[in-house]
């Protein structure tokens, strides 16, 4: 039973502290070394997807490994166009700061994975998705976070690139019909280690001091 003494004893205080430390060091990495990632280590981390919870046990995550020069070039063009549009939304000092930010690791990261949600999957028989179909996408996001932590535990970093045109990316990667783009993941060894988000260090935004939670 969850919360029973037996479950509490399964993980030591040292393990729980290490888990918090792992979460503190789970940063969105944009600066990567170009060293290759060992295949066995990547495969081990990808197993995190198989352990992730999903609505109705639908397991709707679908992955495309982006490896070819043509696919990576298309991805880079997509980012550059999307980033230019995003920059145009800002003015003054905020625009100047945005222009200085490094918001992707597309040129350096040795491993790149586009993650999709299969909205047409029959697995799970629609349980839980009839009232909230977006729960499938939430399931994919949850799986990505487990993957993120697994990578961090292996000394690897992950950068989630969201400044992309999802429709264009879906076409460029010839994703099957019914697959909805969730995020592009850059994976590799971080060029530097820091437990503070880069956007916080560079003055873009601060972390909230408290959790927003209300009672009814």
From TrEMBL:
Residues annotated as domain Nitroreductase: 24-188
Transmembrane segments: none
Any Pfam family the entry gives: Nitroreductase
SUPFAM superfamilies cross-referenced by the UniProt entry: FMN-dependent nitroreductase-like (SSF55469)
One Gene Ontology molecular-function label: oxidoreductase activity
InterPro entries documented for this protein: BluB, Nitroreductase, Nitroreductase-like, Nitroreductase/BluB
Name of the protein in question: Oxidoreductase
Naturally occurring in which organism (per UniProt): Gemmobacter aquaticus
């Amino acid at each position: 039973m969850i919360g029973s003494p037996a479950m509490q004893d399964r993980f030591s205080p040292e393990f729980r502290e290490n888990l918090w430390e792992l979460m503190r060091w789970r940063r969105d990495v944009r600066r990567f070394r170009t060293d290759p990632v060992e295949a066995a280590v990547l495969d081990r981390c990808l197993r995190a997807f198989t352990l992730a919870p999903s609505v109705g046990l639908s397991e709707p995550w679908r992955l495309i490994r982006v490896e070819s020069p043509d696919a990576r070039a298309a991805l880079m063009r997509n980012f550059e166009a999307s980033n230019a549009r995003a920059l145009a939304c800002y003015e003054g000092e905020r625009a100047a700061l945005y222009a200085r930010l490094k918001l992707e690791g597309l040129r350096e990261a040795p491993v790149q994975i586009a993650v999709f949600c299969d909205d047409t999957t029959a697995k799970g028989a629609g349980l839980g998705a009839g009232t909230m179909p977006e729960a499938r996408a939430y399931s994919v996001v949850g799986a990505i976070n487990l993957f993120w932590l697994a990578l961090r535990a292996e000394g690897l970093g992950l950068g989630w690139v969201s400044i992309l045109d999802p429709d264009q990316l879906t076409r460029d990667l010839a994703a099957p019909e019914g697959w909805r783009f969730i995020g592009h993941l850059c994976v590799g060894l971080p060029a530097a280690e820091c437990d503070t988000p880069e956007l916080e260090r560079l003055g873009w935004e601060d972390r909230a001091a408290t959790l927003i939670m209300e009672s009814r």
